[in-house]
Amino acid sequence: MAYAWLLLIYVTVLFCGSYFIQLNFFLKSVNSIQTNEKCIALTFDDGPSGTQTAQILDILKANHAEAAFFCIGENIAGNEDILKRIPEEGHIIGNHSFSHHHFFDLFSSRKMLDELQKMSKSCYEVTGLLPRFFRPPYGVTNPNLKKAILQAGFISVGWSIRSYDTVIKNENRLSRKILTALKPGSILLLHDTSPTTLAILPGLLKTIKERGYSIVRLDKMINLNPYD
Q1: 91 a catalytic residue
Q2: Cβ contacts of residue 123 below 8 Å, gap of 6+?
Q3: Is residue 7 part of a domain?
Q4: Measured torsion, CA atoms of residues 183, 192, 86, 133, in degrees rounded to the nearest 10
C-alpha cells in the first residue's frame, strides 16, 4: 500500500509538472513579470484563422493595442496575407508548432524539433521573420520538449491568465473571469479562433484600460527580442 501511495504521488507530481506550465517543472517559461506597474500582455493562440484573425486585428488596431500571435504552421497556407498583417500592424508572431497535434506531448524530441523548425520555416517564407518565442501546444511540457526547445534556441512562453475562451461560451462569464484575474505583469492567453473572444474583445480592451492598465506588447514587457 505504501508503494502504491508513493507511485500515486509520483504520477500526480509528474502530471501537474507537465500540465501547469507556470510551475516551470520541466523547463523555465516566461509566464508573467514581477512589476508594480499596471501593465499586461495580450497573446492569441492557434491562428491565423481566416476572417476571425482579421477581425481580431481590426479590433486591436481600432483600440491601439499590440499583441503576440502564437501561430500554427499548417494554418499559414491560405492565410498568408493575414500572417503578414500581424507584424505590419505592430504585433509579433510566435511559434505554436506546425500541427498542434493532439498527441504532440507524446512526440519524440526529434519530432518536436521538426515541428518547431517547420513552423518557423513556413513563417519565414511569408514574412521573412524567424520567431524566437514558442508556446507549447496545450501548455504541456516534458523532458522531450525541453530538449527540442534548447536545441533550437527558442524561449518558452506560457501565461498567468488562462481564459479558457475555447470552452466558455458565455460572454459575460468569460469577461468576468479575465477581469477578476488581472494583475500587474500578467500574460493573458486568448485564442483568435474563439467567437466568444471576438465578441467580448472591444469591451474587454476598454475595461482593462478603464482600470488603469496599459496593454504592452509581449516582447516589450518581458524585454526580449521576439525574432532571430
Answers
A1: no
A2: 71, 73, 76, 83, 93, 95, 129, 130, 131
A3: no
A4: 60
Q: Are strands 67-71 and 39-45 parallel, antiparallel or unpaired?
A: parallel
99 in a structural domain: yes
Q: Residue 128 falls within a domain, yes or no?
A: yes
Torsion angles phi and psi, residue 147, rounded to 5:
-60, -45
In this prediction, residues 131-152 reach a mean pLDDT of: 96
Which residue in 45, 46, 165, 192 is the catalytic one?
45
Q: Which of 91, 96, 100, 191 does the annotation list as catalytic?
A: 191
The range of the structural domain enclosing residue 104 comes to: 30-138+154-222
The CATH number covering residue 218 comes to 3.20.20.370
Task: Decide if 114 is catalytic.
Answer: no
pLDDT attached to residue 225: 98
Helices (H), 41-194: 50-62, 80-88, 109-127, 143-152, 171-181
Give the pLDDT confidence of 113-126 residue by residue, as tens digits: 999 999 999 999 99
Please report, for residues 47, 131, 194, the alpha-carbon distance to residue 228 in angstroms, rounded to integers and kept in the order given.
Answer: 21, 7, 30
How far apart (Å, rounded) are the C-alpha atoms in residues 157 and 31?
6
Give the three cell numbers for residue 172: 459575460
Residue 92 lies in a domain: yes
Number of domain units in the chain = 1
CA angle 99, 128, 215 (to 5 degrees): 75
Give, in order, the Cα–Cα distances in Å from 47 to each of 75, 115, 191, 201.
7, 16, 8, 16
pLDDT tens readout for residues 77-112: 999 999 999 999 999 999 999 999 999 999 999 999
